[in-house]
Structures are given as structure tokens and as C-alpha cells.
Write a structure and sequence with these properties.
Layout lengths: L2 H12 L20 H14 L4 H26 L5 H24 L8 H24 L7 H27 L7
Length: 180
């Protein structure tokens, strides 16, 4: 421990504080943070918010919000014509195609056509997981469930599916370390 760090700790234990300095009374020129502490802080920041996620997450949420509104409208209309499971699957496939294109362009900034087919195919595989989450949640509902309850169920299950989808899109489909 450096002498300045020891001096600050001694001041703190004695109950005294330097006369000037930022909030808390410590003179930041006297406080030293070890490189190990900086490394740990960087590791925590990286674990909680990996590089690029601070920019990607708002775009993903905006696209997801618009896609969810479109999905809910499609689901509500289609569920009047076909079963809720069929309406769910149809609405999810249609909105996934559009949201994949939007996420490819705006969230993950992939503007070239290279790899577009691969990302859409992989996104459809991710859709299968999301579809399983929402379908199971609908299947768990009693048969005489109101349309409002079905809608609330798909909203909640879509939220969970959206989190799973973002993780898979970021780590697998649009991972920049992958070869195209």
C-alpha cells in the first residue's frame, strides 16, 4: 500500500478529513486505486455490458417494440380466424423476417448483402426457440380462456422470448468474430 493510501486510511480511522477535496472530504490527489482494482472494475463492466451492447440494446428494444406491436395486431386478427397456436406461429414468422432485417441493419450494423441468407436462416432457428416458449405458454392456458388473457400470455412469453432471442442474436447470429 502506498503512503498516500495509508494516510487517507489513517485520516478516516481517526475521524478526520482533509480540509479540501470532493464530496466525502477526500483529496483525490491522495487516493490511489491499484491497477488490480481497475482490472476488476473493467471485468465487471465487461461482464455486465459487453463492448457494443450499450449501443445495440436501445436499437434492439426499439425494433422489438415495433415488432411486438405488429405481432400483437397480427395475432389478434389471426386468432379470430384460426387457432391461437396457428395465429401465434404465423404472426411470429412474419414479424421475425422483418425484425431480422431491421436488427441486421440497425442493431448489428451489417449493411452488406454478404451473409444475409445465413443470418435469416439462423434467425429462423432462433425463432423456433421463441416459438416454443410462446406456444407452450399458450398450451398451458385452459381451453375457455378469454382473448384478453391469451394476449397477456403472449405479451409476457414474448418478453421472455425477446431476451433469449437478443442473447442468441448477439452471441451467435450476428457475432462479429464469426467468419461470414
Amino acid at each position: 500500500m502506498s503512503t498516500t493510501t495509508v494516510a487517507v486510511l489513517q485520516d478516516e480511522m481517526a475521524g478526520s478529513q482533509p480540509a479540501e477535496g470532493p464530496v466525502g472530504g477526500y483529496d483525490e490527489r491522495r487516493v490511489q486505486v491499484s491497477p488490480r482494482a481497475y482490472s476488476f472494475a473493467a471485468w465487471v463492466r465487461q461482464a455486465l455490458m459487453p463492448a457494443g451492447m450499450a449501443r445495440q440494446l436501445p436499437a434492439y428494444i426499439a425494433i422489438g417494440f415495433i415488432s411486438t406491436i405488429a405481432y400483437l395486431l397480427l395475432f389478434a386478427i389471426l386468432s379470430m380466424i384460426v387457432s391461437s397456436v396457428t395465429a401465434n406461429a404465423t404472426a411470429m414468422v412474419l414479424t421475425t423476417i422483418a425484425s431480422t432485417a431491421a436488427n441486421r441493419r440497425f442493431t448489428f450494423e451489417m449493411t452488406s448483402r454478404a451473409g444475409a441468407v445465413r443470418t435469416h436462416v439462423e434467425s429462423m432457428l432462433v425463432l423456433c426457440i421463441a416459438l416454443a416458449i410462446t406456444t407452450v405458454s399458450l398450451d398451458l392456458l385452459p381451453s375457455a380462456t378469454s382473448p384478453l388473457t391469451e394476449l397477456a400470455t403472449v405479451i409476457l412469453s414474448n418478453g421472455l422470448a425477446g431476451i433469449v432471442r437478443f442473447v442468441l442474436l448477439r452471441t451467435w447470429v450476428f457475432n462479429p468474430r464469426r467468419a461470414s
